[in-house]
Amino acid sequence: MLNVTDLGSGTPILWVHGFPLSSSMYENQLAIRGVEHVMPDLPGFGQSRPQGGGMTIDGYARLMVAELDHRGIDRAVFAGFSMGGYICLAAARLMPRRLCGLILIDTKETADTEEARQGRYASIEKVKKEGVQPIIDSMLPKMLTSDAPPETKVRVREIMSSSTPEGVMAALGAMAGRADSSAVLATIAVPVLIIVGEEDSITPPADAERMTKMIPAARLAHIAGAAHLSTMEKPEQVNLEIAKFVSGI
Ligand code: MLT
Smallest Cα–Cα separation from 68: which of 110, 99, 92? Predict the structure, then answer.
């Protein structure tokens, strides 16, 4: 059983979190009204227990759709940040009928390069020996701009610190093994909103611009003054874009 926050009523949005975070990375998005927020913690993150063993991005996508099934939700807007975006693109390939809209936040469609994949395997070895702290220390400076308020930095660290070694290792393996989703983009038949922090160095604006061109009905929103974790660094701007998008669905 996954821990899931389920609040509000209206068009359902399934929020899929990034790495190494939890559904709490979307706590500011709960201010968006007129929607049902379904916010699961992936296994081994936040308050969800690890599942034991390896995971795949397709496996995470099936777990997310199972959460819709538990709630009797047939179709939802899928919103994914970074690794969550990889998962939403897998859902768009495996179960396209379940999506009535798609929000891709600071993410990309391409698979890992061989170098990135080797880096993930090295990180798994590090977590085995030293736990999750070195991963958090290396990711944190890339999540926010140096101008982000100190309390936001503290909160992001706190959210990351709820990640378990098992969850982190499973997600690293899943991301390393993920398929390239380029071919999926042209098949997406629902409205798509793409959001990118202008200062995102992990999935830079060029990634978002490329995806926008490859998807039939996509609109791109740049978020000024945000790095990778735009939902937490510039929540008001992100929420405005999302509320506008969802009201048009
Ligand atoms: C994330 O924010 O989910 C990760 O940076 C994604 C990745 O490492 O590819």
Answer: 99
81: left (phi over 0), alpha (psi -120 to 50) or beta: beta
Whole-model pTM: value is 0.98
Can you give the residue ranges of every domain in the chain? 4-247
Q: How far is the centre of ligand 1, averaged over its atoms, from the C-alpha of 241 (Å)? A: 22
Ligand 1 center–CA 72 separation, angstroms? 30
17 Cα nearest atom in ligand 1: 3
Ligand 1 centroid to residue 154 C-alpha, Å: 19
Encode 189-228: b = buried (16+ Cβ within 10 Å), e = exposed.
Answer: ebbbbbbbbebbebbbbebbeebbeebeebebbbbeebbb
Region 4-247: CATH code: 3.40.50.1820
Query: Which stretches of the chain drop beneath a pLDDT of 50?
Result: none
The pLDDT value recorded for residue 53 is: 85
DSSP letter at 226? -
